[in-house]
């Protein structure tokens, strides 16, 4: 029974099998061997004809002589058919006899070689394609800059000549559009370089606190204009001067702060910078940007750092953006020896952090820092932010809610008076959210105010504002 089973598996094995006597005559060739050599009967075939580079018959020993190294190593050989055509095979050449016979086993390597060549060809084609794509992106972004710069320059000239407020507002929008276009162009170019593996960091000595001050000044106006608090804390053990890529560190911070401002309508934005580790002349810096904005669900957080993605298509329509900024920030942080982290919940804000390694300039000393686990620091700061981010702010009638309404309404009336309708619309949307749980008459007044602002109707906007304020203060306009 065992012999029958062995014979069956030998015959139907996927490998080529020859059983050869000491004279070299093939006593047996299985189905794979017959198919490969296109021979049905091996009775008159000698293995020396089939594997001429592997064995020959020795008159001296009256046995087979092996022409290649034998053992357990698999090696590529050529198998010849009766018509002198051949094909490659991978075989284990072993000169150990089984009884008075040799066993040769291997498999047809034609497909393997074909696939290897195909993979090599595909690799070459992909490299050419990547190079072509990189050059194309570089050329396109360069060409795009020219018309954008032209539009921006001409808009600036018109701004200096124009006195009409409405036309000046339109020119401001053109300038903002040019600025946004430049940011998108730069992001695409950075992404292309990172994707092609051609991105290099420029590590130079710079004043770290001056960089933070510049970034703070760059974002303060926009954050404060939205009625948000902006807090920046730098740990005292962070050195004044460091060696790193100032431009790229700033790029990550600008991206995180811009997102925080974009998606936060009430509360605060906080930037924390700490030194978390030191090894010789290198230190690890930990940055955390915390906001009290719309937040992101757990299911959507993994998508956030992928290329060209945002958590929701409606976010792209409402807030704009390509979805490239966070992916670039992640890759930049990793290039600097660190990484990024995110913790967020819908309605409870977001906490973005990143860590990087930088060097200390020669002669600059800093106190040795006990290693601080970045994950632990992330959890600790996140907890503090959640404590500050009270959900009461969205519950109509609570002290936190009424205080926030007061702040937003004071900003809103200024925008209406100045007929800055873009910002006024932003504040009316926040007010609408803050009165979501209010009585029907107050919600109706809020809706009328929003519609008047959207239509840029000054008279109706003022009337609707006063109506809403009276409803909130119980008819006391001075409340």
List its salient traits.
4 domains; Helix Hairpins; Beta-Lactamase; 15 strands; 15 helices; Heat Shock Protein 90; six-stranded antiparallel β-sheet; 479 residues; alpha+beta; single chain
What is the string of helix and strand elements?
HEEHHEEEEEEHHEHEEHEEHHHEEHHHHH
Question: Helicity range of the residues?
Answer: 40-55%
Tally of separate helices: 15
Structural class by sheet pairing and helices: alpha+beta
Beta strand %: 15-25%
Give the CA-based shape: elongated
Q: Any idea of the CATH topology of the largest domain?
A: Heat Shock Protein 90
How many strands appear in the DSSP assignment?
15
Structure description:
With about 475 residues, the chain is of the alpha+beta class. It folds into four domains: about 1-110, Beta-Lactamase; about 115-195, Orthogonal Bundle (Helix Hairpins), CATH 1.10.287; about 205-390, 2-Layer Sandwich (Heat Shock Protein 90); about 395-470. Helix content is about 50%, strand content about 20%. It contains 15 helices and 15 strands. Strands 1, 2, 5, 6, 7 and 8 form a six-stranded antiparallel β-sheet that branches. A hairpin with a 4-residue loop joins β3 and β4. The longest helix is centred in the first third of the chain and has 52 residues, at about 110-160. The chain starts with a helix and ends in a 7-residue tail after the last helix.
């Amino acid at each position: 029974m065992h012999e029958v089973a062995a014979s069956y598996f030998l015959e139907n094995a996927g490998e080529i099998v020859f059983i050869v006597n000491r004279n070299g005559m093939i006593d047996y060739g299985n189905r794979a061997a017959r198919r490969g050599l296109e021979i049905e009967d091996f009775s008159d075939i000698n293995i020396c004809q089939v594997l001429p580079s592997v064995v020959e018959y020795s008159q001296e020993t009256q046995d087979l002589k092996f022409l290649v190294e034998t053992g357990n190593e698999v090696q590529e050989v050529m198998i010849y058919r009766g018509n002198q055509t051949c094909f490659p095979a991978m075989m284990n050449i072993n000169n150990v006899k089984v009884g008075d016979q040799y066993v040769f086993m291997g498999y047809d390597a034609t497909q393997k070689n074909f696939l290897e060549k195909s993979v090599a060809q595909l690799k070459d084609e992909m490299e050419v394609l990547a190079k072509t794509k990189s050059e194309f992106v570089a050329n396109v972004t360069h060409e795009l800059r020219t018309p954008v710069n032209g539009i921006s320059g001409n808009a600036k000239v018109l701004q200096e000549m124009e006195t009409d407020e409405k036309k000046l507002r339109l020119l401001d929008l053109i300038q903002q559009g040019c600025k946004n276009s430049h940011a998108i162009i730069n992001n695409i170019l950075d992404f292309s370089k990172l994707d092609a593996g051609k991105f290099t960091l420029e590590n130079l000595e710079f004043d770290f606190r001056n960089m933070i001050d510049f970034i703070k000044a760059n974002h303060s106006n926009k954050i404060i204009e939205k009625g948000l608090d902006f807090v920046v804390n730098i740990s005292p053990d962070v050195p004044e001067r460091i060696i790193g890529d100032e431009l790229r560190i700033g790029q990550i911070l600008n991206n995180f702060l811009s997102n925080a401002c974009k998606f936060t309508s009430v509360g605060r934005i906080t930037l924390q910078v700490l030194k978390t580790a030191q090894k010789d002349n290198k230190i690890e810096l930990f940055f955390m940007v915390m906001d009290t904005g719309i937040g992101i669900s757990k299911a959507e957080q993994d998508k956030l750092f992928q290329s060209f993605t945002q958590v929701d298509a409606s976010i792209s329509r409402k807030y704009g953006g390509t979805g490239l900024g966070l992916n670039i920030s992640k890759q930049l942080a990793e290039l600097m020896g660190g990484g990024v982290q995110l913790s967020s919940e819908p309605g409870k804000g977001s906490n973005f952090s990143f860590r990087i390694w930088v060097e200390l300039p020669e002669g600059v000393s800093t106190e040795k820092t006990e290693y601080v686990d970045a994950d632990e620091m992330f959890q600790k700061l996140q907890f503090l932010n959640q404590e500050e981010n009270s959900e009461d702010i969205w519950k109509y009638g609570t002290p936190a809610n009424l205080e926030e309404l007061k702040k937003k309404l004071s900003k809103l009336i200024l925008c209406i008076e100045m007929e800055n309708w873009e910002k006024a619309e932003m504040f009316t949307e926040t007010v609408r959210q803050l009165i979501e749980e209010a009585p029907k008459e107050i919600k109706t007044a809020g809706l009328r105010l929003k519609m008047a602002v959207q239509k840029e109707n000054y008279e109706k906007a003022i009337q609707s504002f006063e109506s809403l304020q009276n409803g909130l203060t119980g008819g006391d306009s001075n409340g």
